[in-house]
């Protein structure tokens, strides 16, 4: 899963490609399209497009603003490219509009907990990614604490998957995600990475989003632009732990990790 970021206050400017600051943060279609083409050429199966920043302290985005950021990119991508578009949103209206535009997946960091989100997602018939985030982004990094982080995340994801199935989202359309960096310390994140097989055991495909996050910075001491090798190492560990989808800014390098892992899996 390649990341196409449209938020003006993105963590990682290298991925802030949908953005034209000179145009008052209106999405720059050309830039986003070039980025998307490169990611597809490098082997991406799907592209994640998001209009709401989850950075702590990020300004809240109105529904209209989110629609204005995301929809033109979704439409432009689907018009020109043979791609599955994942829309990073928690907003029911955005889910409905994205489905109408032809998007294939809802990537919701709030796991369909906003009022109306379960119903809206179910009505679209799209695949959904349910991610663990224990609190809203503004406060999620205020002393995260768990007795057993793996048990807490597994319990949460099991509950959200059940809620989705109860709302008539087919189990075959559900993906789960521990939410690396969301309401977790560095050690929580690495414990989750080590124990990923326990989450894979829940029976849903697992998505891992680790690319260039602060856990990689903590491990390597490197700033964002120096985190590629650490991110690819972590992606390889996630694959070994059973991850089915890797969310990444760096598709070519991540595809190499997938190629290596895939041959390790193969029996003669
Ligand atoms: C550097 C690069 C520093 C990226 C921080 C970040 C996930 C996600 C995000 C994830 C799913 C991010 C939308 C945060 N992370 N969706 N979204 N899983 N499903 N931070 O891990 O990339 S945004």
Describe the structure.
The protein has 268 residues and is an alpha/beta fold. It has a single domain, classed as TIM Barrel. It is 43% helix and 14% strand. The protein is built from ten helices and ten strands. It has a six-stranded parallel sheet with strand order 1-4-5-6-7-8, with helices on one face. Helix 9 runs parallel beside helix 10. It binds ligand 8Y4. Ligand 8Y4 binds next to strand 7 and strand 9.
What is the radius of gyration computed over CA atoms, rounded to a whole number of angstroms?
Answer: 17 Å
Question: What's the mean pLDDT score?
Answer: 92
Please tell me the CATH architecture by its name. Answer: Alpha-Beta Barrel
In whole angstroms, the N-to-C terminal distance is 29 Å
Low-confidence blocks of residues: 9-17, 20-25
What CATH first level would be assigned?
Alpha Beta
Question: At the third CATH level, what is the topology name?
Answer: TIM Barrel
CATH superfamily, please?
Dihydropteroate synthase-like
Summarize the amount of helix as a percent range: 40-55%
Number of domains: 1
Return the structural class: alpha/beta
Bound molecules: ligand 8Y4
The percentage of residues in β strands lies in 5-15%
How many helices does DSSP assign? 10
Please outline what is shown here:
The protein has 268 residues and is of the alpha/beta class. It has 10 helices and 10 strands.
List the helices and strands and how they pair.
Elements: E1 2-5, E2 19-20, E3 26-27, H1 29-41, E4 46-50, H2 63-80, E5 84-88, H3 92-101, E6 105-108, H4 117-124, E7 127-131, H5 149-166, E8 174-177, H6 186-194, H7 196-200, E9 207-209, H8 214-220, H9 228-240, E10 245-247, H10 251-265
Parallel strand pairs: 1-4, 4-5, 5-6, 6-7, 7-8, 9-10
Antiparallel strand pairs: 2-3
Helix pairs in contact: 1-2, 2-3, 3-4, 9-10
